[in-house]
Write a sequence for this structure.
């Protein structure tokens, strides 16, 4: 018996969310057993959590995408979210409080397309520590920062 799992989706994305029932039905027909939907900020973390409660096939992962990279993607229209500042430590506490409802810490990492970013490094370090504390796997985003990601994960 094969077990098909999609480990990297963003079912909260505006291009998908209005078709979610259809997407879930097609996934089941195709034989998927689980779909991991990945949060990237407070807004999407909450949506992913709600989707996992509504659909048994959907599993929630919560994380913090590199903030400066996300801001640029939002401003360029690549990802239609609201630009909103938030307290990283408060969001980590939210993830911690919902640890039994998540299967991974995701999507987290580094994105140095616009150069190395100290804030990203600090956030990624916090997310690595959180994943270790919660004993959850981590799904890493890395763009132009592969060596630094590996160094941080190894440490």
């Amino acid at each position: 018996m094969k077990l098909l799992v999609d480990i990297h989706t963003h079912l909260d994305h505006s291009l998908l969310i209005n078709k979610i029932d259809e997407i879930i039905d097609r996934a089941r027909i195709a034989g998927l057993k689980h779909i991991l939907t990945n949060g990237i900020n407070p807004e999407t973390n909450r949506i992913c959590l709600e989707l996992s409660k509504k659909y048994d096939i959907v599993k929630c992962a919560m994380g913090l995408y590199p903030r400066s990279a996300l801001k640029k993607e939002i401003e360029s229209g690549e990802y239609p979210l609201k630009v909103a500042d938030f307290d990283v430590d408060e969001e980590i506490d939210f993830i911690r409080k919902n640890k039994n409802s998540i299967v991974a810490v995701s999507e987290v990492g580094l994105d140095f397309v616009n150069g190395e970013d100290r804030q990203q490094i600090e956030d990624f370090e916090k997310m690595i520590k959180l994943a270790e504390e919660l004993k959850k796997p981590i799904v890493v985003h890395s763009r132009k920062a592969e060596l630094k990601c590996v160094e941080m994960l190894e440490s």
Notes: The chain has six helices and five strands.
